[in-house]
Amino acid sequence: MARVTLVTAVWQRRELTRAFWLWAARLRRRWRVSHGITLDLVAAASNDEDAALGEAVGARIVRHENTPLGAKFNAALLAARENAPDAVLIMGSDDFFCDRAADALGGAVLADRSVGFRDCYYLDLATGATRYLKGYRVKSRHREPVGCGTLHRRDLLDRLNWRLWDATQHHGMDNSRFATLNAHGAMPELLWLRDLDAVMVDIKTPVNLWPFDRTRKQPVMSAEEGRAMLAHLPAEVLAAIPWPHPVPSAQAA
C-alpha cells in the first residue's frame, strides 16, 4: 500500500482551517478506498488553538514559530519524513481540490510520479469573486506548477535532505520551493485542471500573506462561472467554509 503525507502550516483563520481539516480527512478516506493509499497529515502550528484543530482529525502537529514561514514549512516536512512516505503532498491550509483532482494525484502516487497543477482558481472569501490562473506567464516560471496540490516523490526529497524552502524567507514560499527543485532537476510534471474538468481553489482572506488583488491581471469570473467552479467541490466542504454571504453554490450543495 502506498503512503503519502500531506504537509501544511496553519495560522489563525480557524473556521477556514476547520473546513480544510474536514476536507483533508475526506481525502484520506477517499484515497484509502479508491486507491489503496494511506494518507498521513502533518502540520506546523504556532499556538494551542491552531494545533487543536489538526489534532482533532489525527494530524501530527509540529510546534514552530510562525516566522519565518520557510523554516516553519521545513519543520513540518522534516516531521513528515518520519512517516516514511512514498510521496509528500504540499498544501496551504486554505486550499481545496475536488475529487477529480484527487483521483489524478492518487494515480500519480501509484505511478511514482512527481506532479503539480499548472492552473488554479482563486476566491476572495469576503466578496465571493473568483479568478482563474491559467499558469505563470513569466518565462522564468512557465514550467512551474502553482504551489498547492504538488506531489513530491520521496527519492527527490531524500536528495534535498527534506528541505524545500529557504529557512530565512517569510514570503515567496512557492518561488523558494520551486527554485530549490529546479536547481536539482527535480521539478514536477505539470497537470491541467481544465483538461481534467477539475477544480483546485485557493481561498483568500485578509490574513493571507498575499491578497486576492494580487491576481488582478486575471479577469474576475462571472457569478455563474464562479458557482459552476465551486460546485465541483464536495458539498460538505462547501458547507463548512465560513462564508460571510450566502453560499455561492448552495444549489449544488
What does this structure look like?
The structure is a single chain. With 253 residues, this protein is of the alpha/beta class. The protein is 36% helix and 21% strand. The protein contains nine helices and eleven strands. The strands form three sheets. A five-stranded mixed sheet has the order 3-2-1-4-9. It has a four-stranded mixed sheet with strand order 5-11-7-8. Strands 6-10 form a two-stranded parallel sheet. Helix 1 (14-35) packs across helix 4 (99-110).
Helix content: 25-40%
Tell me about the biggest sheet? Answer: 5 strands, mixed
Order of helices and strands: EHEHEHEEHEEEEHHEHEHH
Mean pLDDT: 92
User: What strand order characterises the main sheet?
Assistant: 3-2-1-4-9
Number of helices: 9
Strand content: 15-25%
Q: Judging by the overall fold, what is the CATH architecture?
A: Alpha-Beta Complex
**Based on helices, strands and strand pairing, what is the structural class?**
alpha/beta
Keywords for this structure?
globular; 9 helices; 4-stranded mixed β-sheet; 253 residues; 36% helix; 21% strand; 11 strands; single chain; Spore Coat Polysaccharide Biosynthesis Protein SpsA, Chain A; alpha/beta
Task: Give a brief description.
This protein has 9 helices and 11 strands. It is of the alpha/beta class and 253 residues long.
